[in-house]
């Protein structure tokens, strides 16, 4: 029964999406709004079918309905209730079904919020989003169908992938990542609508920017939680290895970040319209590429799903997307002419343009290193390995350049600067950066890149904090009919600006943590007998023996280690090996002693009860926890930036205004109100 209902709901969703896509695009291209009510009905129908199909699958998993194919793959009588629900996205077919749920919810939310706005664009935007929905509904109904009937019905199943049961982060990480991936569908639809109409008004830019920011924060949190999961579960002593699937999530993050900076120039100077829309389209295309990498089985990765039949289908869809995007940009891009120009090399718009070029260069570098082994194998028959040295060599200088521009950009004005004022503003941050670098060197830290990173972090932090607490400024915004409109903004009222700087602080925290934890990590390994010690970085670890236990879905063996920190504080850490019925090899859970300054990370590799020995890998990672602690800053800053911004404006006569205000040199007033 669950299989029949679920399959019917998916087919219903496919029908609603196809109908809405055809009506929306056809009516929008004819510039007729008669079909708009029907498009909205199709959106509600598609969302309802996707939600209903997912609830049906959850019911099948919770009730152990092994007559459904997907339940026989990931279900088990012994799996705890939480992991039964989580197993919805633990394998290929379920993850695509879950993707449909998120897509239906996103499109419905967009339609609900903007249903009475932007009439010129809405049909085209919703039609484009539903066209994407057609593809995913087709996947669920065809190549990735989870509803197949099973006969004879087995009495039990293997349960979900043990890696997905090994830490609570797997309850949160995949949904966050999917929310980021699928969320890029909305700005894609908005951008396509703008290109199809050959215009992108300021009112239409607002939802484009806001919905990209929503997807961006989910993607950011998903990436960080994925790194945290790898660190806390896999036991290999790291959080990022330039794995192809990790890279797949990083690529759209880079282009979406560049997009959000580009919108600032487009909004303020009426420039970079085509560049902005290109980045929005690229972000969505890269999410589809990332989904293909994850689910086609072409990459061997702990993050990827097994070999599947959906790879060719994804490749066809990816080809259609590329042709569509390139065709739209080529045929309609000339209509999006810039209304302004770069007035100075030392201007904020120039710094943002350079910043975006750096982001695109990093994107290309990561993409090339990720796909080159596949291209080499396809063309030459030889699979080349591209590892961490390549990515670090190419991406680290780009990351440092981005950090530098994070400080320089906010300090520069819009338009032509007053160079004397600019020099004065540069002095204190530069001095702080030099002092931080010198202090790190005096403390014994070495290495050009990490020292440069720490110095630039001090430089950027001073500028960011200064912008956060900047006093109320007044700028002359426009002269019209003999009046001057004075727009008053402040750190408490300019939500977007304030939120952006809070996000910048979170990014600085991540960059510093990555530089410290990768450059100054300490490592040792060894096999010890009961009562013997391991030493590393001032830590004494005394092996006390083994303990074992049983949980509903696994058994485990843990080592007891008495840890004495450099300050003399003692604690007991228990790294463990977990045994699952489905897995032939144990899955480790490292023990991590966390402090703000550093983490002591202990992973048990093997043990011998007869010999009374155990083998461990031990690392000390400086500042690594700052990566996860950046999440509240990123979320808070994004929420502030999304929140509606209000402006207080007063109109006064030119004489009164000029008499009451001091002269404003160059672009300084414009910079303050940005």
UniProtKB/TrEMBL annotation:
Cytochrome c assembly protein domain ranges (all copies): 89-296
The signal peptide here is none
What Pfam families has UniProt attached to this entry? CcmF_C (PF16327), Cytochrom_C_asm (PF01578)
Which UniProt keywords are given for this protein, alphabetically ordered? Cell inner membrane, Cell membrane, Cytochrome c-type biogenesis, Lyase, Membrane, Transmembrane, Transmembrane helix
- Membrane-spanning segments: 6-26, 38-62, 82-112, 124-144, 176-196, 208-230, 250-267, 274-293, 313-331, 352-375, 395-414, 426-445, 451-469, 501-521, 626-643
What range(s) does the Cytochrome c-type biogenesis protein CcmF C-terminal domain occupy?
315-643
Query: Superkingdom of this entry's organism?
Result: Bacteria
Does the keyword section mention Lipid biosynthesis? no
Briefly state the protein's biological role.
Required for the biogenesis of c-type cytochromes. Possible subunit of a heme lyase.
Q: Which family does it belong to?
A: Belongs to the CcmF/CycK/Ccl1/NrfE/CcsA family.
The name this protein carries in UniProt is: Heme lyase CcmF/NrfE family subunit
Q: Which organism is it from?
A: Pyxidicoccus parkwayensis
């Amino acid at each position: 029964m669950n299989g029949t209902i679920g399959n019917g709901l998916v087919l219903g969703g496919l029908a609603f999406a196809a109908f809405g896509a055809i009506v929306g695009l056809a009516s929008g291209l004819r510039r007729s709004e008669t079909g708009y009510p029907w498009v909205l009905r199709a959106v509600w129908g598609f969302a309802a079918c996707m939600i209903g199909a997912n609830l049906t699958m959850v019911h099948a998993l919770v009730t152990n309905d092994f007559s459904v194919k997907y339940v026989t793959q990931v279900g088990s009588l012994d799996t705890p209730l939480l992991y039964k629900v989580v197993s919805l996205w633990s394998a290929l077919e379920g993850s695509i079904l879950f993707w449909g749920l998120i897509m239906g919810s996103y499109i419905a939310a967009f339609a609900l919020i903007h249903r009475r706005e932007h009439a010129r664009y809405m049909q085209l935007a919703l039609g484009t989003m539903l066209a994407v929905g057609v593809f995913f509904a087709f996947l669920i109904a065809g190549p990735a169908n989870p509803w197949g009937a099973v006969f004879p019905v087995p009495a039990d199943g293997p349960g979900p992938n043990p890696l997905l049961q090994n830490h609570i982060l797997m309850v949160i990480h995949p949904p966050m990542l999917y929310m980021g991936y699928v969320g890029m569908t909305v700005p894609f639809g908005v951008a396509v609508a703008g290109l199809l109409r050959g215009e992108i008004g300021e009112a239409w830019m607002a939802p484009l920017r806001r919905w990209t920011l929503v997807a961006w924060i989910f993607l950011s949190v998903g990436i960080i939680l994925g790194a945290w999961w790898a660190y806390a579960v896999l036991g290999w002593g790291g959080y990022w290895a330039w794995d192809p699937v990790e890279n797949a999530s990083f690529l759209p993050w880079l282009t979406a970040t560049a997009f959000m900076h580009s919108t600032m120039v487009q909004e303020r100077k009426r420039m970079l319209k085509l560049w902005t829309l290109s980045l929005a389209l690229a972000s969505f295309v890269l999410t589809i590429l990332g989904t293909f990498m994850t689910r086609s089985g072409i990459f061997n990765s702990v993050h990827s799903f097994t070999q599947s039949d959906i790879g060719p289908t994804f490749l066809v869809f990816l080809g259609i997307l590329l042709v569509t995007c390139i065709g739209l940009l080529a045929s309609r891009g000339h209509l999006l002419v810039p209304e302004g120009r770069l007035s100075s090399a030392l201007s904020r718009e120039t710094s943002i343009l350079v910043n975006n070029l750096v982001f695109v260069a990093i994107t290309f570098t990561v993409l090339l290193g990720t796909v080159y082994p596949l291209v080499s194998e396809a063309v030459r028959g030889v699979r080349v390995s591209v590892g961490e040295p390549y990515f670090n060599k190419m991406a680290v200088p780009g990351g440092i350049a981005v950090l530098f521009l994070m400080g320089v950009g906010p300090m520069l004005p819009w338009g032509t600067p007053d160079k004397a004022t600019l020099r004065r503003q540069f002095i204190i941050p530069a001095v702080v950066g030099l002092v931080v670098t010198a202090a790190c060197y005096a403390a014994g830290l070495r290495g050009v890149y990490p020292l440069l990173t720490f110095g630039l972090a001090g430089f950027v932090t001073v500028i960011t904090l200064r912008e956060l607490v900047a006093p109320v400024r007044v700028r002359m915004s426009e002269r019209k009919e003999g009046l001057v409109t004075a727009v008053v903004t402040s750190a408490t009222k300019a939500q977007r600006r304030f939120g952006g700087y809070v996000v910048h602080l979170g990014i600085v925290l991540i960059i510093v943590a990555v530089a410290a934890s990768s450059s100054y990590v300490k490592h040792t390994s060894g096999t010890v007998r009961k009562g013997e010690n391991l030493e590393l970085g001032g830590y004494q670890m005394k092996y006390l023996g083994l303990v074992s236990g049983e949980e509903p879905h696994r058994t485990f063996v843990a080592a007891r280690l008495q840890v004495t920190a450099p300050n003399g504080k003692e604690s007991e850490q228990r790294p463990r090996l977990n045994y699952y019925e489905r897995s032939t090899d144990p899955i480790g859970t490292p023990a991590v002693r966390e402090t703000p300054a550093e983490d002591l990370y202990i992973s048990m590799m093997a043990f011998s009860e007869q010999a009374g020995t155990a083998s461990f890998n031990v690392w000390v990672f400086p500042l690594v926890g700052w990566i996860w602690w950046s999440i509240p800053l990123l979320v808070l800053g994004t929420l502030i930036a999304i929140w509606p911004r209000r402006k207080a404006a007063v109109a006064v006569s030119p004489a009164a205004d000029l008499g009451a205000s001091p002269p404003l040199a160059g672009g300084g007033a414009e910079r303050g109100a940005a």
